[in-house]
Amino acid sequence: MRAVLGIDVGATWTRALLVDRDGRVLDRVKVRTSDNPLRDIAERVAGWNFDAVGIGSIGPLDLRSGWVEGTPNAPSRRFPLVEPLRRFGKPIVAANDCVAAVWGEHVFRYAGIRNMVYVTVSTGVGAGAIINGTLLLGKDGNAHELGHAVIDFRARRRCRCGGRGHLEAFVGGANICDVYREVAGESVREPAEIFERYRRGIEAAERFVDLWLDALAAGLATVAAAYDPELMIIGGAVALGNWDLLSRELPRRLREYLSVREPAIVRASFGDDEVAVGAAALAYKTPESLQEFGYPRL
Ligand SMILES: [Zn+2]
Q1: CB-proximal residues (5 Å) to ion ligand 1
Q2: In which domain, by residue range, is 27 found?
Q3: Which positions ≥6 away from 172 have C-beta within 8 Å?
């Protein structure tokens, strides 16, 4: 295979990259996510030359049907992942976005590491894991939805999924303005404002950031307890936009909660392309080798 198509379906944007064997991006397109985002991408990449297709998507997924089913934030709650791309007659593989991301890191950056997790801190919080060299999927492709790990069982705060006290409800970009109002007693319009106020030394923002870092560390300790990884890769817009803060504060706070030997913590390698590059890395696998991970044939 000379090049593959790697697609990232997000709640707001859908990206497609043409990616070569070495992870180099040869071409790219980005569209606003519609009620049928893969149909839109299929039209935009019709002139591209690729040998396989990988899709990393917001979930939940049904890997057997090849559909997203019941996603809370996209324009449509359900849409097809696979069917709109069948016209190209190439092999297609789909995965949860963080599952794709961890595979991309494994293939293109950390080939020697057999136990690693990827955690995104973005609008929501999610994880992908490779344990003993195997990419973990779950029965429908929705394993390790660890944004919904409970970090405060007495909390009244509800997550967008409906459950109480979840990690995402405290640290996800969609929730932190609400948490900030409760903790700091003042309102902001977007997460970036909170961190900007923190950097200006505003006491209320410092109080919030202290809570946010502890909540994130507690969540990451839960991830570490579940998987015992050597390497923990952190991505997502909220984390990457505040990497100075995370790299300085996280290891020390994580140690307070850890039960296992401390993993190395690094930032995600591919920025906005993280999921699409990971999807491309999956597309380079043969259908037979995907079945070893428990993939159904699509
Ligand atoms: Zn939840």
Answers
A1: 148, 159, 161, 163, 166
A2: 3-102+275-292
A3: 121, 122, 123, 124, 125, 147, 238
